[in-house]
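Hi both,

Apologies for the delay on this - the queue was longer than expected. I finally got the adenosine-5'-diphosphate-bound model through. Below you'll find the protein sequence and the ligand SMILES exactly as submitted, and right after that the structure tokens for the full complex including the ligand.
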Amino acid sequence: MEPVLVVDGIEKSFGGLKVTDKVSFSMFPGDLTAIIGPNGAGKTTLFNILTGHLAPDAGSIRFEGKEIAGARTQDIVTMGMGRAFQITSIFPEETVLDNVRVACLSKLREATVFIRPISAHKRATDRAYQILESLGLEKFSDRRAFELSHGDQKLLDIGIALALEPKLLLLDEPTSGMSPEERLLTRELIKKLWSLFNLTLLFIEHDMDMVFGIALKVLVLQQGALLVEGTPEEIRSNPEVITAYLGEEL
Ligand SMILES: Nc1ncnc2c1ncn2[C@@H]1O[C@H](COP(=O)(O)OP(=O)(O)O)[C@@H](O)[C@H]1O
Ligand SMILES: [Mg+2]
């Protein structure tokens, strides 16, 4: 199986501070991988480098076999890297349905240039409803996006990302700011979406129930460097990880 993503020796400093220190790892189709580590470990910076929001100082990132280190965000998104849960892609004045449908339509047009406009529209509408249903948002289809609660806007953002059929989906702390009940629902939802849409998913998370509840692989970042990677069981019982990070958590 070919890897979706190969990160090799990525480095980044801000001033004198090294925030990404020779990070290397790979993602394969169907992976469900969590990145954990203390605040300031460089997790979000790593995502920003993967998505082209920051250029690395050194190292290589191959996405679907192509080098993308330092490439523009828009080009990386077009190649199939998605990032969601931060309400950054929503058009607030448009309806919930149209937010997802426009993304479905753009994906369909890209895939099938010969398709007739009317049937493309029908297919995009069906697909948008399927996505909204999977997120429990179909009842809000005709509402304008800004009318949704904060939590539901986060879901809509993931709906837009799913509509683009990402080859790799990145989530930065999907449960941050949520109540324990919302966390549990989100954890179940993410597992369901991963399975339903055959996702390859990389998520940053502080909630250890979520990490150890759903991740198949865990990467531990510490001071910008990858301390260790392994299965949840390996990470839980790793003495270095327990000392550095999990001590109080487990
Ligand atoms: N644009 C920036 N300029 C300077 N320092 C930054 C910038 N972004 C992040 N940092 C610093 O990089 C380190 C890692 O931050 P971040 O990647 O946000 O960590 P995490 O997401 O793991 O909490 C922190 O010390 C942070 O202050
Ligand atoms: Mg962060």
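Main takeaway for now: The mean pLDDT is 92.

I'll put the files on the shared drive as well.

H.
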